[in-house]
Amino acid sequence: MLTIENLNQYYGESHTLWDLSLSIKEKCCTCLMGRNGVGKTTLLNCIMGLVPVKNGSISFKGKNIIKKRAEHRAGLGIGYVPQGRQIFPLMTVEENLTIGLTTAGKGKKIPDLVFELFPVLKEMLKRRGGDLSGGQQQQLAIGRALVLDPTLLILDEPCEGIQPNIVQEIGDIIRRLVQEVDMTVLLVEQKLHFVKQTANNFFIMDRGRLMADGNISELNEELISKYLTV
Q1: Span 51-73, pLDDT tens digits
Q2: How many domains, in total, are found in the chain?
Q3: pLDDT at residue 104 above 60?
Q4: How does strand 14-24 pair with strand 2-11?
Q5: pLDDT digits (tens, 9 = 90+) for 216-230
Q6: What is the DSSP string of 187-222?
Q7: Strand, coil or helix: what is 91?
C-alpha cells in the first residue's frame, strides 16, 4: 500500500532521514517506534508532503506521490491525524468535521461511520472544538480524518495526554477499522502496552535510520532496551 525507498531529508544542514526504506502492509496496523527526536514525525510529514525531501520515492498504491502537493495526497485516500490533534478550537464539532469534505470537494455529508465510532461527536455537534476534553478532541481529530473515507490512516501519538478509558477506546477503534473496514493504519506511538494490543507489525527508527522491523510478536525485550527505553 505504502512504499518508501531511499528517502533522505534535511532540515538546513541537519540530515534527519538517512536512505530510509520501508513498506507498509495493506489492511494491517503498523507501528513506527523510536525514542523522541529520531525522525518519526518528520517521516510522517514527508509522507503527507508537509516538508520537502532531498531524494527518494514515496509510493502509494503503486504510484510515486513524491511530487504531489499535500492537499492532493489527502484526496488520494490518506488520512492524517497529527501530533497535538490540531483541531480548530473556535469552530464547532460539525464545522471541524465538514471542513475536510469542503476542501476535498466531496459534498457536505459526514459519513455515518464517524458517528458510529464516536457517538459523543454527534451529541456535541454544535459545541466548539476548544470546549471539548482532550480525549474528545482526539476523537474529533480522528473523525475529521475519517470523513474523507481514507484507505490509509496515519496517527501520530494518538494516546498522548489522553485519559486511560479513551486510550482503550482508540485502540478498539483502530482494530475495528483494520478488521471490519479493511483500513490500513500507520501509527506512531510510545505506549508499549497499547502498541502490543493494537499493532500487527512494527518498525523501529534510531537517528533517522531504520534499525528493526517485524511482526509485533517479535518486539522483544532486547529491542525495547536497545532502542526504546530512555
Answers
A1: 999 999 999 999 999 999 988 88
A2: 1
A3: no
A4: antiparallel
A5: 999 999 999 999 997
A6: EE---HHHHHHH-SEEEEEETTEEEEEEEGGG--HH
A7: coil
- 193 burial level (CB within 10 Å; 0-12, 13-18, 19+): exposed
CA nearest 229: which of 194, 195, 190?
190
Q: Which residue has the cell 474529533?
A: 140
Backbone angles phi, psi at 124, to 5 degrees: -115, 25
pTM: 0.94
Query: What is the Cα–Cα distance from 44 to 155, expressed in whole angstroms?
Result: 9
CB atoms within 10 A of CB 37: 11
- The answer to whether residue 219 is domain-embedded is no
Type of residue found at 123: E
- Chain centroid to CA 212: how far? 20
Is 50 contained in some domain?
A: yes
**Inter-helix orientation angle 134-146/93-104, to 10°:** 20
Residue 67 sits in a domain of what CATH number?
3.40.50.300
Q: What grid cell was written down for 59?
A: 509510493
25: domain range?
2-214
Contacting residues for 119 by C-beta, under 8 A, at least 6 apart = none
